[in-house]
Design a protein that fits this description.
Layout (H helix, E strand, L loop, with lengths): L4 H12 L5 E3 L6 H14 L1 E6 L7 H12 L2 E6 L2 E5 L12
Parallel strand pairs: 1-2
Antiparallel strand pairs: 2-4, 3-4
Length: 97
């Protein structure tokens, strides 16, 4: 699913007040990080990720790699924070996209 600008705007609004559910540190994008992200996407659909200063990747690289590994869409990258979205059949967010 490819998100258009209006859909991304809606998801950015929802993600603005969310806490980060995942942090990426000095170990980078380990297998465990990807598994944890997959679980979080199944549970929440929209996940905010913080990259710590010790992370070996920049936010753009991490966002692309994580989205590819989990089948998610990159909604927004700002600073060292990434917002990813992967819809579920249940539409847990209740947002029509």
């Amino acid at each position: 699913m490819i998100l258009n600008a209006s859909q991304k705007k809606t998801l950015r609004t929802l993600g603005q007040g969310m806490p980060a559910l995942l942090q990426v540190g000095k170990d980078g994008l380990s297998e465990n990080t990807v598994k944890n992200l997959d679980i979080q996407l199944d549970a929440h659909e929209l996940v905010k990720i913080n990259l710590l200063k010790t992370a070996p990747l920049d936010a753009r690289e991490a966002a692309i790699d994580l989205a590819a590994a989990t089948g998610a869409n990159v909604v927004h990258i700002i600073g060292r924070t990434v917002l990813l979205y992967r819809p579920t059949k249940e539409n847990k967010l209740g947002v029509r996209l």
